[in-house]
């Protein structure tokens, strides 16, 4: 949908030296980022001071937090949970749902977690097949709640826990589902057709707009429901994920890496950056 975009401020570099950054979150005064290739979950404050919190050998390695603050990690065909003492426990075993590893994860305000599966082995060069979304309830029970998703990627839940928005990278759209009381999904619909946009990680703001990261177009874009583009932030490398945080949740964090294809993902080059920019509206919902 054509629109008159607002000018975007210049992003500032907060952190460099990542191999492959992904899955940013805001918690306890810091941004948290996973580095898939280094197998690390890193926390970094707004002054750039960072520390490695967890090491977990998994690609993908996406993260989110339960409402009580415990960290969840999608690791292979399991969801791991970090306990207050730093130990890791299996939160859910997803082996029965897919032979493939799981990718993005978002936990809502009720403690339900949604995780998705690409449906094919991208890193192994397999042919495209549609992916799925699974629900993991607080007691660790897992079941499939959506299928036929064209490479599901970033996900977000609205503040009232009523809607799940999923980025369909190969569909070039954001897709919404109603969330039932038991966590099930229904009423699938296109939330925004993105034209040439290829959405990866996403986050919501308080004006009911979505920011989506876009790797091939090297940008992060803010859109309304229906597809109107409100703002675009252009980078010099692929933007894989984004998150709103900071004290007032108006600091937009961008995770970007020089993308040279799956075959070169683990070549050891540290081109990953974490950047920040002031956003026009604060973050809302989950993550």
Strand-helix topology:
Layout: E1 12-18, E2 21-27, E3 30-35, E4 40-44, E5 50-55, E6 61-65, E7 71-75, E8 78-82, E9 88-93, E10 105-107, E11 113-117, E12 131-136, E13 142-149, E14 152-157, E15 163-168, E16 173-179, E17 185-193, E18 199-205, E19 210-214, E20 219-223, E21 229-234, E22 238-245, E23 251-257, E24 272-278, E25 283-284
Antiparallel strand pairs: 1-24, 2-3, 3-4, 4-5, 6-7, 7-8, 8-9, 10-11, 11-12, 12-13, 14-15, 15-16, 16-17, 18-19, 18-25, 19-20, 20-21, 22-23, 23-24
Summarize the structure.
With 287 residues, this protein is mainly β.
Q: Given this structure, which CATH class is correct?
A: Mainly Beta
What's the number of domains?
Answer: 1
CATH H-level homologous superfamily name: TolB, C-terminal domain
Strand tally, please? 25
End-to-end C-alpha gap: 26 Å
Largest sheet: 5 strands, antiparallel
In terms of DSSP E residues, the strand content is over 45%
Low-confidence stretches: none
Strand order of the largest sheet: 21-20-19-18-25
- Helix count? 0
What is the 3D shape?
A: globular
What sequence of helices (H) and strands (E) makes up the elements? EEEEEEEEEEEEEEEEEEEEEEEEE
What structural class results from the helix and strand content? mainly beta
How much helix is in the residues? under 10%
CATH fold assignment:
Neuraminidase
CATH architecture: 6 Propeller
Rg (CA only): 17 Å
């Amino acid at each position: 949908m054509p629109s008159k975009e607002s000018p975007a401020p210049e992003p500032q570099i907060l952190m460099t030296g990542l191999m492959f950054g992904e899955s940013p979150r805001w918690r306890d005064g810091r941004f948290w980022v996973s580095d898939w290739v280094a197998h690390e979950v890193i926390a970094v404050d707004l002054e750039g001071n960072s520390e490695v919190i967890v090491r977990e050998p998994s690609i993908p390695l996406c993260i989110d937090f339960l409402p009580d603050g415990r960290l969840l990690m999608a690791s292979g065909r399991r969801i791991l949970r970090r306990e207050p003492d730093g130990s890791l426990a299996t939160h859910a075993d997803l082996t029965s749902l897919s032979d493939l590893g799981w990718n993005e994860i978002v936990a809502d305000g009720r403690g339900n977690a949604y995780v998705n599966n690409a449906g094919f082995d991208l890193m192994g060069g397999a042919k495209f097949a549609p992916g799925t979304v699974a629900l993991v309830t607080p007691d660790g029970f897992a079941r499939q709640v959506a299928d036929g998703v064209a490479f599901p990627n970033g996900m977000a839940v609205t503040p009232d826990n009523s809607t799940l928005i999923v980025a369909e990278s190969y569909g070039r759209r954001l897709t919404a589902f109603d969330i039932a009381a038991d966590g099930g999904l229904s009423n699938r619909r296109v939330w925004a057709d993105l034209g040439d946009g290829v959405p990866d990680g996403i986050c919501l703001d308080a004006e009911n707009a979505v920011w989506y990261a876009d790797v091939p177009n090297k940008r992060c874009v803010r859109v309304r429901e229906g597809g109107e583009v409100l703002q675009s932030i252009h980078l010099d490398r692929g933007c894989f994920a984004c998150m709103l945080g900071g004290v007032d949740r108006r600091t937009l964090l961008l995770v970007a890496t020089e993308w040279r294809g799956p075959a070169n993902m683990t070549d050891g080059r540290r081109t990953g950056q974490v950047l920040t920019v002031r956003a026009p509206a604060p973050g809302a919902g989950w993550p």
